[in-house]
Amino acid sequence: MRNLYLILITSSLFALSSCNNEKTQAAPTAAAQKTVTIAGGKALSLPIIPNDKLLDLWHNCQMIDYLFHDLPFSMSQDESASIQTNLTYIGPEPVTEIPANCKIMARQFYQVGGDITIEADIYFSEGCHFYVFYEKSKPVYANQMNETGISFFNTMINQAMQARKNAQAAG
After folding, report:
1. H/E segment holding residue 158
2. Angle at 140 between CA 116 and CA 69, to 5 degrees
3. What is the predicted pLDDT for the residue at 9?
4. Hey, where are the domains in the chain?
5. pLDDT at 39
6. CB 97 within 8 A of CB 37
């Protein structure tokens, strides 16, 4: 029930924000566009993901696949409510920098009609909780992760680690 309220509130916010002037969405404000350094040391100026892109994913994304780099599993979400809840983890704040100690935990693949329409690196380590989105292998957006997303990923990691310990103890 709590998730239903979260989804309703978020969808209302998305709907309200999508009513903004199209000129604003086409050209992000200076506050929404920051220079960040991607792995390899190249500085790029990345805006936050536009509301219309989020709304498109909200309504049309049919699957999100996760490929974790250091965890012993992968994950897929194919239920609309789960996908929409996952989209609420993307905060509205831009990423101002990627510190050298930040680590990519996973890559997300957003699928619409069987095609991957956008991908995201999930940076998740101490002091680093954000997404860098890619289209055609190029970084295009960067957003902070909100507290709900941080909590979700912490819970998921803790459950995976506990399952690993249980498997090792049984084996």
Report:
1. helix 147-170
2. 60
3. 36
4. 30-170
5. 53
6. yes
